[in-house]
Amino acid sequence: MTKSFSDLGQQSKLMRSPIIKAVIRTAIILLVEILLMIYYFYFSAYKLPDILDSPTMFLLFPVLTLVSMLVISLVVRFLFFRKGNYFSVYTILINSSLLIYVVVLAYYFNTQWNYNKTHGYNAGNQTLIDMADNNGHQFIGFAFSKLQSEFTFPRDLDLHSYVAKDTAFTINNVSKKSQLVYFIYGFTNDNNNKEYFSKVYVTDLTSQLIFYNKKVSDDEEYNYVRILKKEKETVKGYKTSMTIEVDPNIYQ
After folding, report:
1. What is the pTM of this model?
2. Are 170 and 147 contacting, i.e. CB atoms less than 8 angstroms apart?
3. Which single residue of 87, 144, 201, 223 could bond 18 by disulfide (Cβ 3.0 to 4.6 Å)?
4. Confidence band, pLDDT 50/70/90 cuts, at residue 223
5. Domain segments of the chain: what residues?
6. Distance separating alpha carbons of residues 10 and 86, to the nearest angstrom
């Protein structure tokens, strides 16, 4: 029994040793950073299986952070605290690195959040809206932002194409130039692969949603969308992302 208590005491001292504490703290911090990085890439429109299949994607920055702290703590210890405890220096630096890591990642999360609002939460949508941006049609992103706001899970929104035209409308006897945007889309979780369309006006980068989730198969207005899409087939460039100049009196 005495030996048993002695063994427990030794184990307790071992668990309280600076090296064990440093290892446990490092493992916890590394795990937190890896999980945050996985979530960031998922938030940036990557699919979770693709992220997990590419360990370098989510391990690179956490491991680099850990290695940097090991090197820096060694340098600090032997240059400035030669008589101090190395693990105390390392613990302070590894804790500080986590704080810096979270702050920097929060900045990128905020940047990505603003991007996702106008470009979508999956790679396909982002590619199509990026094409519009590159063509000088940033208003498409503002229109898409309005459409996305109607859905609880906008990541499920699968944008197939869009058509746009310049138009105008009158408010208080004042005519304002506007853009009319039709989005044609489906949903990734829809096994029936149904296709829908929506209609959005954009004026001075302010969007107004006219309707959404109308089926393309049973709506007369979609015939007009078909006409716009046919007109674009003769235009060089992005067939689904070029603004068409038409008389606003023809269709409003």
Report:
1. 0.73
2. no
3. 87
4. confident
5. 2-119, 123-245
6. 22
